[in-house]
Amino acid sequence: MDDxxxxxxxxCPYAGSPSQALVLLDATAAQARAQGAGLLLCPxxxxxxxxxxxxxxxxxxxxxxxxxxxxxxxxAQRHGLAIVYGYPEQNADGKPWNAVQFIDAxxxxxANYRKTHLFGDIDRAQFSPGPQAPAVxxxxxxxxxLLICYDIEFPEPARGLALQGADAVLVPTANMIDFxxxxxxxxxxxxxxxxxxxxxxxxxGQEGRTTYGGLSTVCAPDGAVMDxxxxxxxxxxxxxxxxALAEARQHSQLRDRRGDLPPAWS
Length: 266
Fold this sequence. Notes:
The protein is an alpha/beta fold and 266 residues long. The protein contains seven helices and 14 strands.
């Protein structure tokens, strides 16, 4: 069990193709590992681009163990660090899922999550909503959960992970420049109300007519912003410590939560 976890957040523009994205990922993974990171967190749909249209998504979608996963596994093994990356996952029953996958330093796929909350016409035109709530998984003694972009803007997904015992919530995202309130307000709130670390790796630059906002952020379990990027491409680093979790959880309101009350909403 590791008392600390150093992660790198890759804030980057989208590459022109999956092959270009993999070349950039390889170089970034080497840099992240050289600077002490054990985990590299990439943006939403990081290997293919996000707003590429329904036909583009369908053409690039693949199974969770497909060619992209195998290429990422090789990069993870080559550089000795875990990688969280976004990709379109094939769905036999409809449009692909907007998915994120965690591959460890041995090249093993430890977790795969499909975005459950679709953002407007962009997501709905390209993806099916994920059918399952996020689940916690273990890695090097840490209990981790995955969400994707818009998911973190709702209280329930992060709370569900916290109730499963998550230590940190990892969020690949493609948040546009007009929605900085997510990084400024919602991420610290999610970390504080659930007493978890929140790491949010955003895209930056242009994709078609869309400008992504950057501001990739890591929040501590007391709601403090540990690190935040600017608007440009960058590789950010933060070290998560178990001591900070223990201290914050001494004041957790979760112990007083009334889970026995029937919900007044569906």
